[in-house]
Write a structure and sequence with these properties.
The protein is an alpha+beta fold. The protein folds into 4 domains: 181 residues, no CATH class; 138 residues, no CATH class; 185 residues, no CATH class; 144 residues, no CATH class. An 8-stranded antiparallel sheet has the order 1-2-3-4-8-7-6-5. Strands 9, 10, 21, 24 and 25 form a 5-stranded mixed sheet that branches. A 4-stranded antiparallel sheet has the order 12-11-23-22. A hairpin with a 2-residue loop joins strand 6 and strand 7. The chain contains 17 helices and 25 strands.
Length: 750
């Protein structure tokens, strides 16, 4: 019967989806055979004619080295190679054949810097829906393969250290290995990502693939004594006392590290502020990511007509707009706020968005104005004239989000047509802060009363006119709740305004806290004194670095070399010191694996462990297999199986994701309620590729005596997939966590 139902499922879904029947048609991997391929008529690259022969020899050598490293056989029918000059010259190699491709980046010596393999499976993923599956290769075998590949990819003074492993679930599941590159056995700033699946190496990437380091690698023997380096590093550590969120709706006092990132040069013994060193050459140790404020979606107008009527649900939702301010009232209210500077601006649109849970309505008012020679808003006349000559749009956009019922301003954002402010500044920083202070007291008086100008390190220390106020309690700042205002230095009006605030927050007491010296000792004791290589910027405009001056032609103001240095390891894991207990606060990253100590005697322990190794399970070290399955439990497992990291306490996110992915309907949210067998089968099968088939009625014979017609499709599919068996399904029976693990595990093994 299972075979008959499976066949009928395939036919029904093919008709329902109007696409070819699903089938795994992935081409077999070609037989691996190392060796040199015939390059005649297959190599293409760009090079001056006089360098042709030399380029051919170089490409030949690089190609051969890559083929030996990756075991690239001779079955590929097309090949091309390209050379990219620059600070870090790179070769890009590309192999292809029918249904199979391989892309590789390598340096001049043939060292593989990145590799990506693609195989056409013949099936489009977009028709599969919810389709988690265990990788075709087991975790132990994947780890063995990963170790083998690291031995191939890292040679000489380099070796790879795996720091984390994560399973990616799906039709073509795989394992993702991340780690660091050791040089001469010491840590370095280079990291890697390696992906392994049933076909072998799927992808590999080094963080220095496109930005290598110049110069020779220093020897691993330091000239500076470790004790002296430790003393210098300790002297650079600075802690600051502030409130931080405890992740459970409260805030605790914590000593937080705020000092600069400091290392000790192992050659000179000098303590160096690396942040300042990068800033001096116009760089940044971290990444610079510009985020644009997203506008609220604008509602489309719908014309009434025909014989349609409004349902009670629709009417209930519409009632939320009964006391909403209209566009005219909003415009008048905002123009009355002189700090917004809307004179000369026209309202271009006003949209509304409803929060269906709270009934709150957010209005988004968009204004436009034109920059003129008389009012340049702090930009220079030269920049203005250049923009005019280029025919650029000189429109200014100002967006205000506000409560659609009360008119309370929630945020302000201004977008100018020019970028760098290099015009005359008519307002001092003190005046800008006074203007920001007045705006906050008039706009959010209750929040302003609970806040103060933030004097913590890193806040309000620049010369710009952006002012940050932070929430305070018992005289201590809580910088996770802020009011931020940017005042235009030319007009004195508000360019931007944002609020980050938690309404219900329980502050821990601020008495009986440990002293600063005790906290510093605890913090330093939790860190690891480390000798390794660090990236070091070299200013290429200086005569001493003239050998790298060619990089100026590529737009670089500095290059990086690796230097041997002492530094503190573990700073990302040690977040500070709890001011009440005096203990270091550590937050180690999750490895994506769940393990338990309460599975003795559990018949389905192997299934629970298999899910845990795939990153599906519950934190805390206990699975509680006999505990009643709640809707929250079920959604945690299903969302993890769908590739998400889940915090069970984040109910709003949990609900939104569960509804969006089709596990439950919006009205079925009951996080602490029990889940029956049929309810779980509906949650599991509805969003999957079988979801279209269950809509067909009258064609199912589940073979269960206790299943009605409405549940027959789910029951039949469950039997066909091996999720249920016997004469009775017991559809309303409440499940345990172990029951859910068994059903999900069998579904992933289908």
């Amino acid at each position: 019967m299972k075979r008959w139902i499976a066949l009928m499922l395939a036919l029904v879904m093919a008709a329902a989806l109007a696409v070819p029947a699903f089938a795994e048609t992935e081409d077999e991997a070609p037989e691996i055979d190392t060796g040199m391929m015939d390059l005649e008529d297959t190599v293409c690259f760009l090079a001056p004619e006089q360098e042709q022969a030399d380029m051919q020899e170089r490409l030949e050598a690089v190609t051969l080295a890559v083929k030996n490293t990756l075991d690239v056989g001779d079955a590929y029918t097309d090949f091309s190679g390209e050379y990219r000059d620059g600070i870090s010259p790179r070769w890009s190699l590309y192999w292809s054949m029918d249904g199979r491709e391989l892309n590789v980046a390598a340096d001049e010596a043939g060292k593989v810097l990145s590799a990506d393999r693609w195989i056409d499976s013949g099936v489009s993923d977009r028709f599969y829906g919810f389709a988690p599956a265990f990788p075709s290769v087991g975790r132990d075998e994947a780890e063995r393969q990963a170790d083998d590949w690291l031995d191939r990819l890292f040679t000489g003074e380099e070796s790879g250290r795996i720091d984390s492993v994560r399973a990616s679930l799906g039709r073509s599941g795989y394992y993702i290995f991340r780690g660091g590159v050791l040089k001469n056995g010491l840590p370095s700033p280079v990291s890697f990502t390696l992906i392994v699946d049933g076909e072998g190496l799927r992808s590999f990437y080094r963080s220095d693939s496109y930005s290598g380091y110049v110069g020779a690698l220093p020897a691993p023997e330091p000239e500076t004594d470790e004790a002296d380096a430790a003393q210098a590093l300790a002297g650079a550590v600075e802690l600051e006392l502030r409130y931080v969120s405890d992740g459970e709706g409260g805030a605790r006092l914590r000593y937080v590290p705020v000092g600069p990132y400091t290392v000790v040069d192992a050659g000179t013994g000098e303590a160096v502020d690396m942040d300042a060193l990068y800033a001096a050459v116009g760089g940044d140790r971290g990444s610079n990511e510009a985020a644009m404020d997203a506008e609220a979606p604008e509602a489309e107008a719908v014309m009434a007509g025909g014989g349609a009527v409004l349902t009670e649900t629709e009417l209930a939702s519409i009632e939320n707009y009964g006391d909403v301010l209209d566009q005219t009232a909003i415009d008048e209210a905002l123009r009355a706020v002189k700090a917004l500077g809307l004179d000369g601006f026209a309202m271009s649109r006003c949209s509304y968005a409803l929060d269906s849970d709270s009934g709150d309505v957010t209005a988004t008012a968009r204004y436009t104005g034109t920059m003129t020679e008389e009012e340049l808003y702090g930009f220079s006349s030269r920049a203005f004239e250049d923009a005019q000559e280029q025919g650029r749009d000189l429109v200014i956009y100002k967006t205000v989000l506000l409560d659609g019922k009360t008119g309370q301003i929630r945020s302000v954002y201004t977008q100018y047509p020019l970028w760098e402010r290099d015009g005359d500044v008519t307002m001092s920083q003190r005046a800008a802060r006074r203007a920001a202070d007045n705006f906050l007291k008039n706009t959010v008086p209750e929040l302003a009363e609970q806040s103060a100008l933030c004097t913590l390190k890193g806040y309000n220390q620049g010369e710009d006119s952006t002012v940050v106020y932070a929430r305070t309690h018992e005289g201590y700042f809580f910088p996770e709740n802020t009011l931020t205002v940017a005042v235009n230095p030319s007009t004195g009006t508000v360019d931007s305004f944002t609020v980050q605030w938690d309404e219900d927050l329980a502050f821990a007491p601020a008495e009986d806290i440990v002293g600063g010296e005790e906290a510093l000792d605890a913090y330093l004791g939790a860190l690891d004194m480390t000798l390794g290589y660090v990236a070091w910027p070299l200013d290429v405009t200086l005569e001493e670095n003239a050998v790298y001056a060619d990089s100026l032609e590529w737009g670089y103001t500095y290059v990086e070399e690796l230097r041997l240095a002492y530094f503190y390891g573990g700073t990302d894991d040690v977040r500070g010191v709890d001011a009440l207990t005096g203990e270091a606060v550590t937050e180690t990253g999750a490895d994506g694996v769940f393990a338990y100590d309460d599975l003795d005697g559990e018949d389905r322990a192997d299934m629970i462990r298999a899910l845990g190794l795939a990153g599906i399970g519950f934190a805390g070290g206990q699975f509680r297999p006999e505990a009643a399955l709640t809707q929250r439990d079920a959604l945690v497992l299903l969302l993890q199986a769908d590739g998400s990291s889940v915090d069970p306490a984040e109910e709003q996110w949990l609900r939104e994701q569960a509804v969006r992915r089709g596990f439950i309907s919006d009205g079925a949210w009951d996080p602490d309620g029990p889940v029956s067998r049929m309810a779980l089968l509906r949650m599991l099968l509805g969003p999957s590729r079988y979801g279209a088939a269950v809509e067909l009625s009258g064609v199912w014979d589940a073979g269960f005596k206790d299943v009605d017609e409405a549940d027959a499709p789910y029951a039949a599919i469950a039997r066909a997939l091996g999720l249920a068996e016997g004469e009775a399904l017991e559809p309303e029976a409440a499940l345990t966590r172990a029951d859910a693990a068994e059903i999900l595990c069998r579904f992933m093994e289908r």
